[in-house]
Design goal:
Elements (H helix, E strand, L loop, with lengths): L3 E6 L15 E6 L2 E5 L7 H7 L7 E5 L5 H4 L2 H8 L2 E5 L6 E8 L2 E6 L6 H6 L2 E5 L4 E4 L2 E3 L16 E5 L2 E4 L8 E5 L2 E6 L6 H12 L3 E8 L7 H12 L2 E8 L3 H12 L3 E3 L5 E3 L1
Parallel strand pairs: 3-4, 4-5, 5-8, 14-15, 15-16, 16-17
Antiparallel strand pairs: 1-2, 1-18, 2-3, 6-7, 6-11, 9-10, 10-13, 11-12, 13-14
The structure holds fe (ii) ion (FE2) (2 copies).
One fe (ii) ion binds next to loops.
Length: 279
């Protein structure tokens, strides 16, 4: 199947057109139709889609990687253009999410969950289809479902919490899902923020698909928030895997991107706004 994946929303701008924001979204074109993986925070998705000539009105399905605002905040803008559409996600995307920052002895709490009520999104046309398990969402396209935590070095981000029944608990991100496209050249894996751990996700994908060859891994890796030791453990694990191209974005950060470039050379690229992967 012919595939073209375009980064619509991302922190950095790499082409002559488009704007950056803290968020991620990818527009996926296949022979079966067009799809959207995440929506960014809502600041750039419409303008970038127009400038990059990717028509949001044509999308068949929306996939949400997790409930953070920088992946879900653009959903109303998409729905206003598209109208009724299936939106695939995990049940936990509607949890309240909190980011706790401690600076100079002062603690600040910031709401970073999905910024809209489910009923408002449904009013705009979202038909939520919620999954917990690995699922084929379209022929040759899969969502990972909940990812088992196996590695010792991919630890939860201690600044992130969910609020359940008024109680703040460490966010375990069961909603963190990635999208898989099964192509003749190998699997394409698109990550949202990889809160489950990039290596945990890859092992889960290998386990569920029975395939080990990755043509490309794209999206947010969250490697920016690991200690140097954890980052090295992740990179050494990646080197042992069959990955042809690695095109990271968003929460990967410059430190991890430079390390990945050192290790993967020409197989590495940074997925800025407007970056395209074609198969
Ligand atoms: Fe993110
Ligand atoms: Fe996130």
């Amino acid at each position: 199947m012919g595939i073209r994946i375009t980064v619509l929303c991302e922190n950095l701008v790499g082409r002559l057109v488009g704007s950056g924001e803290h968020g991620f979204s990818a527009f996926i074109e296949t022979d079966q139709g067009h799809y959207l993986f995440d929506t960014g925070s809502g600041q750039t998705i419409v303008a970038n889609s127009l400038m990059l000539d990717r028509d949001l009105k044509t999308i068949r399905k929306v996939f949400l990687s997790h409930g953070h605002f920088d992946h879900t905040g653009g959903l109303p803008e998409v729905l206003k253009l598209r109208g009724n559409v299936d939106v695939h996600a995990h049940h936990h995307i509607f949890l309240d999410r909190i980011h706790v920052v401690k600076e100079n002895g002062k603690e600040t709490k910031r709401f970073i969950g999905i910024p809209y009520k489910r009923s408002y999104l449904e009013f705009l046309g979202a038909n939520f289809i919620l999954h917990r398990d690995f699922v084929e969402v379209e022929k040759g396209m899969f969502l990972t479902g909940e990812v088992p935590r196996k590695t010792s070095f991919e630890k939860p981000d201690l600044r992130l919490f969910s609020e359940i029944d008024g109680k703040m608990v460490q966010d375990i991100f069961w909603d963190d899902q990635s999208l898989i496209l099964d192509t003749e050249k190998g699997l394409i894996l698109i990550l949202g923020c990889a809160h489950s751990g990039m290596i945990n996700i890859i092992h889960h994908v290998i386990n569920k698909t029975g395939k080990e060859k990755f043509y490309a891994i794209l999206g947010g890796t969250h490697l920016d928030f690991l200690t140097s030791e954890q980052l090295e453990d992740s990179i050494q694990s990646l080197k042992k895997m069959a990955i042809e191209k690695i095109g990271v974005s968003h929460c990967t950060g410059m430190r991890a991107a430079f390390r990945l470039h050192q290790e993967f050379g020409d197989r590495f690229s940074y997925g800025c706004v407007g970056s395209i992967l074609e198969v």
